[in-house]
Design goal:
about 50 residues; mainly alpha; 2 helices
Length: about 50
């Protein structure tokens, strides 16, 4: 589930860069992507501790 969101945002970021979108748009997408990746690793760490 989180993987899909990360992949979608990564694709959105790639497209924004290719289209030379405004820097603020690229930056905001990048921040969102960073937050999702951090959330993914936090959840993965919790799962590995529980196992």
């Amino acid at each position: 589930m989180l993987n899909n969101e990360i992949n979608e945002l990564r694709e959105k970021l790639d497209n924004a860069i290719l289209r030379n979108e405004d820097y603020s748009i690229i930056y905001n997408i990048s921040i969102q992507l960073d937050e999702l990746i951090a959330k993914y690793y936090r959840e993965s760490k919790v799962k590995s501790v529980k196992v």
